[in-house]
């Protein structure tokens, strides 16, 4: 069988398939980053959490990944002026997400896939055409020059949001795909390590400078540095288009991100030399062509990065597909069940990711939001198993995304109502909270108990 794309999801899927005894050829359009020092693709750091770690656990790589990860226990909020504040992610420090290098993880997965002895990764191979009836692939061999024809019985597309496999599917009758680009782009910047590899900011946090329609974030790296990402509109009064000179960039940062400026010695250099990335939400249907081809990961459902779930969702795809292959005798049956299980959940996390941009860029800076987060934490501790938040379900459990979305809507309403008129979390009415939880959350969870069954 053939797999298009040796990125994170493709390399992990190759391992799952190899464990089932299949011989897998992987066609990767980029050079081998382990030998030529290429990038891992998109530059945004990864936040790996419960879903991604579970998938790695199933192929024996969870502990190796965690040894290269840095726990982030909350959001460290950087106001324009004033003191920093930490907003914990979970009910206690045991609930945290982890910063991990995209490049390191991708290299690790490729190497372990090859070490199975059943996976052959070929680099600089670009799929140009697909004939789903015959399994013929037209491949541009950029390594050797010229084009060649390859044949496969089953084709998996894990080739990202611009997937050549998905584009070939879209030419078939009955297939649809939408791409919704975000009006914001992103730019990578770097805060170097301090003397002796020390961290110049709090190590165990995801740092956010929320500024309404735009923001700066920073995630820690193993070497003591932080990878910063500036999210900014492409056009407008404050945008990538308006910051067209080093002087304007420096003045903008000194005004809007004053505490970050001393930490960014290569600010203007990085700003004008690093590419401006784009973000897109991809939704399509179906994801399969009979039992002959299937897309998954970003190729099927690319999402924007504001819930830190793109890779986690793609890794979960691999585990769910593995379960489908276990239950069915034919590829067609397995692919059909996979689409049925994952489509609604992929759409749910795509919508939550877009909504979370507003939360990160503006809500996190408001006193009301901070109070509501404190109330939410109080309810999580006071009513374990009965009160569940959207963030905790998405990041710290494997409850299907659609259920996390629905429960989160109800839980958010309860928190908002209990926070009305409060000035401090100690005054929250726990008796009223118990009543609201019993009225709105518990019946819903009982009614949809089957929906809470984890996938994969």
Automatic annotation (TrEMBL):
GO biological process: anthranilate metabolic process; kynurenine metabolic process; L-tryptophan catabolic process; NAD+ biosynthetic process; quinolinate biosynthetic process
Catalytic activity: L-kynurenine + NADPH + O2 + H(+) = 3-hydroxy-L-kynurenine + NADP(+) + H2O
Pathway: Cofactor biosynthesis; NAD(+) biosynthesis; quinolinate from L-kynurenine: step 1/3
InterPro entries: FAD-bd (IPR002938), FAD/NAD-bd_sf (IPR036188), Kynurenine_monooxygenase (IPR027545)
EC code: 1.14.13.9
Segments forming domain FAD-binding: 4-169, 285-318
Name of the protein in question: Kynurenine 3-monooxygenase
